[in-house]
Design goal:
The complex is a heterodimer of chains A (about 200) and B (about 375). With about 200 residues, chain A is of the alpha/beta class. Chain A is built from six helices and six strands. In chain A, helix 1 crosses helix 5, helix 3 crosses helix 4 and helix 4 crosses helix 6. The radius of gyration of chain A is 15 Å and the shape is globular. In chain B, the strands form three sheets. In chain B, strands 2, 3, 4, 5, 6, 7, 8 and 13 form an eight-stranded mixed sheet that branches. In chain B, strand 7, helix 6 and strand 8 form a beta-alpha-beta unit. The chains are: A alpha/beta (about 200), B alpha/beta (about 375). At the A-B interface, helix 1 and strand 2 of A face strand 1, strand 6, strand 9 and helix 9 of B.
Chain lengths: ~200, ~375
Amino acid sequence: MGFRYDIRLSGSGGQGIILMGIILAEAVGIYEGRYVSQTQSYGPEARGGSSKAEIVISDTEIDYPKAIKLDMLLAMNQKSCDDYYMDLKPEGILIVDSTFVKQLPVARVYQIPFTRIARERFGKEMVANIIALGAITKLTDIVSPKSMEKAVFARVPKGTEKLNREALNVGMAEAIKAKKNILPFMRSEREDEDT
Amino acid sequence: MKNKKNRPYREFLLQGNEAIVEGAIKAGCRFFAGYPITPATEISEAMSVKLPQVDGTFIQMEDEIASIAAVIGASLAGVKSMTATSGPGFSLMQENIGFAIMAEVPCVIVDAMRGGPSTGLPTSPSQSDVMQARWGTHGDHPIIVLCPSTVRECYDLTIKAFNLSEKFRNPVILLVDEVVAHMREKITFYDDEEVEIFNRIKPNMPPEWYIPYVDTPSGVPLMANFGEGYRYHVTGLTHDIRGFPTSRPDEIDPFIRRLFRKISQHFSELQFGDFYETDDADITIIAYGCVARSAKRAVIDARQKGLKVGLLKLNTLWPFMRTAVERVLNTSKIIIVPEMNMGQISREVKRVNKGSSKVFTINKVDGIIITPQEIQARIKEVA
């Protein structure tokens, strides 16, 4: 069977989870040229409630469009972390927004306070999702920073490119820091070389 | 951009709903009237942006009843027209869908299925409108219902839906589920792609010779656009060949039979589906919509374990793909029909089955897509 990489981005409605899903799918599908399918589920509420976006990446046509066993999980709040970490593969990557996620289910976790950084560095909680995309770029090897930047610019409002580029860069820098904080014996074998 | 074969192409990450809009515009749709409802709202949104760019008209109506009424009116004036809704709105449209069938007005109706009955589960998938699409409007009538399971099929089948509605002067329903409607996939459009577009056949005789509902060899009468000098009467009452109400049995019977004949004699043109690994299969899964994707995955996994399992994917739900289903009934002893309702297509499969195979079902009604694992478990159970 071909290569298949399952991602779930989760949090609460209003955190920009689905937009993240679209940008990540576009970065991988259009700019990296792989097969991709992105699905989502959310409650009927306008904000609040739980929200998740799933991205399946493959080098062949994708049959089942939803995530099966996760290679990567991003949890932007405690509830989604509690609900979904069971779906993670043993070698899967867990990234949490440590602004909200205080109780960790496993030891090997990348903890980055996306929302706090967004609030303190940019004065806008809104960009937390773009910071997280930056971190995902560095913590996984599924997408290059260049493709990610192109995909972000294609989806954000005109005139916010500078803000979003900075947010992406901050996310990548934080990811490198988070990698160092993880105990050496717990590190994934797939460390990337460009850091 | 250009690909390896030097064919110019463009690639997009599109939602099922957005691909439906692309397909509709490509097919020549220039009028959309609708009322927003999850999970079909993105169709209205995209139409409101795209239609003005091609000199089309977008109207947000006061409700779904008015939406389908406006669509019928626009189509009678010669404009290819469409509306989109979900289960609750589809229920409201049913009376006028019957009118469109009776008056033989081409139009396309998208129903993005969500959990029901009533307001149900607005943001969750379901496949529970299969029978509503077939028999939602009253009276004995023919209908064409197409069901995509990928974003590419959303595009292709929307074009087909317009072509078929124009060709047979009948409403065509595109039945998508929430998963397919909201799913984003990469879709490639080639600039040199040839797309077959069918336009209704207009009369070329002088207006005074035109008989609006007269039978033809295909069973489909010529259709004059309102405002082009051809005057005729359009009614929901059973009418004679001139369009006026009749209660003469010798006019009623041939009229109703013609409505059925125009679809049934072109049955073979309406069969869209896909056989996957069915030739040597002991067990065949019959699936449609998003569940067909889970089923394909289950088939691939089962084949790796050495089990002979195949898949028949249905893209046409109505008229029911009897010949295709009979083919797998003849070759497989066991049939499994997974669907997100309490058994709507499985009943049709059982009706077609003449006792040669055992038909099992998987019925899931909790608002979550049937997973490949659930289908695998059922395969293990019945094998």
